[in-house]
Amino acid sequence: MNEFQSTPPPVLRVESLSKTYEGALAVDALSFDVRPGEILGLVGPNGAGKTTTLRSIVGILPVKQGRVLVCGYDVMLHEAEAKRCLYWVPDDPQPFDALTVWEHLEFTAALYDVRDWKERAEELLQRFELVEKRDALGGELSRGMRQKLAFACGWLTRPRLVLLDEPLTGLDPRGIRSAKRAIAEVAAEGSSVILSSHLLEMIEELASRILILDRGHKVFDGTLAEARSSIAGVEGGSLEEIFLKVTDGSLPAGRTSMQGGAPSGAPGRARPEGGDWSGGGAGSP
Ligand code: ATP
Fold it and tell me: Considering the chain, what is the average pLDDT of its residues?
């Protein structure tokens, strides 16, 4: 086996992705890979471009500059195949008003062709403390319950790539513990996870690699150990110290980025009306 055969292909490849809003650059020539079983912590100050990047990956924003490959599929050319590989949990999931919790699971199973889904759906209701809400309508759920339902639907599909935007917001302490455990377990089973959050302790606890963005630029991509050994002044420091160091507001925009700790060069099915549910679903928005 040669060195190329020994490295599994990335589940996600982002190549020179750029995005502008009315002429203002939000993401600038961003490139990174995510490999199977990896939990990538995506962090950056407000306005750094995290959500724009996630929304481009899941197909909510069209990729006009650069390329995004999910499970080898270009999201612009093979949208349905790419979406079938991933699941997106937005920071404030909006379930369909007219569907119950159980019907969301049923709908998700149909969308992703999940066979024999009922037993797993029952387990997920237990796991995310939704048993009592099984017959509640989407519009009747609290924010934390909507978050839990999004997790349950996502986990039902056993996605190869899960994208989570501030996944703990709104969860109660037991929900936080379940969610953190679920994230670690899904990665241990081989799924890749992108975890975007300002909760740096959670990122430090769960992420195997960290990507730090600042004003649309990649300023660090590597492990915590690499950050500690390569960035002057943060030896042995926390992710918070690293974050504050590499996103120092006095640095000019467009400065040299760092990678791996070292400076570097630079299926469409009908869906019910009324919801803004997972953006990554096969055929969902
Ligand atoms: P936060 O941590 O605050 O959620 P973020 O890292 O997710 O921030 P984005 O939401 O991706 O950042 O925003 C990146 C840049 O793009 C910001 O300057 C923001 O003002 C701008 N932006 C985002 N969405 C829009 C939009 N719909 N129209 C115009 N500008 C936008």
Answer: 86
